[in-house]
Specification:
Blueprint: H1 12-20, E1 26-27, H2 28-38, H3 47-59, E2 63-65, E3 81-84, H4 86-108
Antiparallel strand pairs: 1-3, 2-3
Helix pairs in contact: 1-2
Length: 124
């Protein structure tokens, strides 16, 4: 079995954290902001949830504390930055493939997402 598959399935929080770290190192609050912006506010990670998940991801070797930091003028020395490891990237890719397979199966069964109009377009 591929080593990355032993971590599957990821929780929704784990998936969102790994996805937030896919393109750049981030500190905890930066992860929270990325997830909220990317999901349009549909997913909001609380700090307790975030740091519990981060601790587990570090313990599993999927992320590590990063030594790279922004310029001192733009940094707060108290922040810990995290980055995705090679294993973390493989796990994220494996989870994405797993989720895509689930959606393909649902589509084959005729499941389609409900069409909703944006809130701004609904009549009052």
């Amino acid at each position: 079995m591929d080593d990355s598959r032993r971590f599957l399935p990821l929780s929704a929080q784990q998936f969102q954290i790994l996805l937030a770290l896919f393109d750049e190192d981030r500190h905890g609050y930066g992860i929270i902001l990325d997830v909220e912006a990317r999901t349009g506010g549909a997913v909001r990670l609380g700090t307790g949830t975030l740091y519990t998940a981060v601790s587990g991801l570090v313990d599993d070797g999927l992320i590590v504390e990063s030594s790279r930091r922004p310029a001192a003028a733009a940094d707060d020395h108290r922040r810990k930055y995290y980055r995705l490891t090679a294993l973390g990237r493989k796990v994220l890719e494996a989870e994405t493939a797993r989720l895509e397979a689930l959606v393909r199966e649902a589509r084959r069964k005729g499941i389609r997402p409900a069409v909703t109009r944006p809130a701004w377009s609904r009549s009052k």
